[in-house]
Design a protein that fits this description.
about 80 residues, mainly alpha, two-stranded antiparallel ribbon, globular
Length: about 80
């Protein structure tokens, strides 16, 4: 099966944070973006480089995982 390029799965990153107690408001405040922007990422938009970098830094601190462990998705993955 063709794998293709992998991209950060922003939905999963945000769900991981929620499971660790960081809801949308807390996450948005921690990375200095509007809550509406964060919710847009959860629905499929992608953050810009700086915002995405801050979100991944927060994800790593909260989950204790390295960037190599960030959830990814391929264009060939099935999405609900």
């Amino acid at each position: 099966m063709a794998e293709g390029k992998r991209f950060v799965n922003w939905f999963r990153v945000l769900v991981d944070l929620e499971r660790k107690g960081y809801g949308a408001t807390a996450t948005a405040t921690a990375i200095s973006v509007p809550k509406a922007t964060l919710l847009g990422w959860k629905q499929g938009s992608r953050p810009g480089y700086e915002e995405g970098d801050r979100l991944l830094m927060l994800w790593g601190m909260v989950t204790g995982n390295s960037r190599e462990m960030v959830p990814t998705i391929s264009q060939f993955d099935w999405r609900a």
